[in-house]
Amino acid sequence: MRIFSGIQPTGRKHVGNYIGAIRQYVEGQDRGDPAIYCIVDLHAISVAWDPAALRSNLYDTTAILLAAGLDPERCILFRQSDVREHTELTWYLSALTAHGDLNRMHQFKEKSARQRELVSAALFFYPVLQAADVLAYKAGEVPVGEDQRQHVELMREIARRFNERFGQILVEPEHRIPEIGARIMDLQEPTNKMATTGGTEQGTVYVLDEPGAITKKVRSAVTDSGTEVRRGEGKEGIANLIEVLSVARGSAPEEIEAEFAGSGYGDFKGAVAEAVVEFLAPVRERYTALRPDEESLEHALGVGAEKAREIAAGTLAEVRAAIGIGSA
Ligand code: ATP
Ligand code: MG
Fold first, then answer.
1. How far is the C-alpha of 214 from the C-alpha of 236, rounded, in Å?
2. Which helix (H) or strand (E) holds 146?
3. Whole-number pLDDT of residue 68
4. Three-state secondary structure along 218-267?
5. Is the CB of residue 145 below 6 angstroms from any atom belonging to ligand 1?
6. Which pLDDT does position 81 carry in this prediction?
7. What letter would DSSP give residue 143?
8. 317 Cα: distance to centroid of ligand 1 (angstroms)
9. Substitution site in 17, 142, 206 for ligand 1 pocket (most atoms within 8 Å of beta carbon)
10. What's the gap in Å between 259 CA and the centre of ligand 2?
11. What is the pLDDT of residue 116?
């Protein structure tokens, strides 16, 4: 099974990214043939950006991924902009993408509403570039969080349309969304997903947060006026913490509900904070060791880009030939 997923170089990745996506990447390395992970700097410029910060954030994200357990020997880890085939394929696929479909994308609606100055065409085109990312590798599986379900559905539709018209060349990928932790919520606004763009600062736990900061954020998480540690209607805040604890400890949500039956929210939050601190500590430690050596990070990305380019170039040659672009 060929696995592909992308992650934005927003530097400080949060615990939602870690639980919903990065954890799956690490696990996929041994199943993927190969597992391909891409740091999507081209997606990052769909909203306002600072060039120097983008470059630095890209190293942050690379180091976080390596610290989380990605091993360049066991997966292909690279920077999107190093493989130009992504942008070329984006254009070809755009010719097969319905404008109306892009208009329906939740992510575009949410992110465009938040832009203060420019709603860029890139933000609208984001799902086409994302489709090109995955389809260039003919990946069968795309590990993502729940928020990316619609985008994966769209790339399937694009692949289907392409194949119907030009022959069986592309692969319709399946999403892989984790059963628990697919949509970690903002701790301050538990009806919104924890997010890099648009989340609250106090409600977002970053992978690199110090133990003190993590504890403070978890302890001040918004809950409800009840007393029971269980999932249910109107209990989004508690349900979210149950999921986080479930993943951090590797135990089922039901076990957590049973364990904390009769406990107060204070004790429960204390346990969540402690587990999250422990869960993230090894990643933060390894990150601190890896991040300063930018040359090594560049080297790892360069090796990955070479392997990625080889696969993508093959697909692009087939695509060009099929659609009548370039010499026969
Ligand atoms: P942005 O808000 O700018 O889109 P992001 O926080 O969504 O940033 P991305 O790099 O776009 O970060 O997402 C990387 C991966 O993390 C994707 O697979 C996405 O589905 C997943 N993800 C993002 N937020 C969450 C969340 N709150 N819970 C679980 N998974 C998430
Ligand atoms: Mg996102």
1. 19
2. none
3. 98
4. HHCCCCCCCCCCCCCCCCHHHHHHHHHHHHHHCCCHHHHHHHCCCCCHHH
5. yes
6. 98
7. E
8. 32
9. 17
10. 33
11. 87
pLDDT at position 150, please? Answer: 98
Alpha-carbon dihedral of residues 207, 208, 213, 215, nearest 10 degrees? 40
Query: Are 134 and 4 within 8 A, CB to CB?
Result: yes
In single-letter form, the type of residue at position 247 comes to V
Cα separation values, 241 from 16, 197, 251, 296, 321, Å: 12, 21, 13, 37, 51
d(CA 12, CA 309): 27
Centre a 10 Å sphere on the Cβ of residue 314 and count the other Cβ atoms it contains: 14
Spell out the residues 6+ positions from residue 65 whose beta carbon is closer than 8 angstroms to its own.
Answer: 7, 22, 25, 37, 39, 77
- Phi–psi pair at 6, nearest 5 degrees: -120, 150
Sheet (strand 35-39) strand order = 76-79, 35-39, 3-7, 141-143, 174-176
pLDDT in tens, 256-278: 999 999 999 999 999 999 999 99
| pLDDT of 26 | 98
Question: What is the per-residue pLDDT for 198?
Answer: 85
Specify the DSSP class assigned to residue 285. H
Cβ–Cβ under 8 Å, residues 297 and 59: yes
Region of 158 on the Ramachandran plot (φ > 0 left; ψ -120 to 50 alpha; else beta) = alpha
Q: For 13-40, give one letter per residue: b (16+ CB within 10 A) or e.
A: bbbbbbbbbbbbbbbbbeebebbbbbbb
Cα 144 from Cα 151, distance rounded (Å): 10
- pTM of the entire predicted model: 0.97
Q: Which residue has the tokens 């696990």?
A: 27
Q: Is the shortest distance between the CB of 32 and ligand 1 below 6 Å?
A: no
List residues bridging with 5 in a β-sheet: 37
Q: Residue 322, SS3?
A: helix
Question: In which residue ranges of the chain is pLDDT below 70?
Answer: none
Nearest CA to ligand 1 atom 16: 17
Give the pLDDT of residue 12. 83
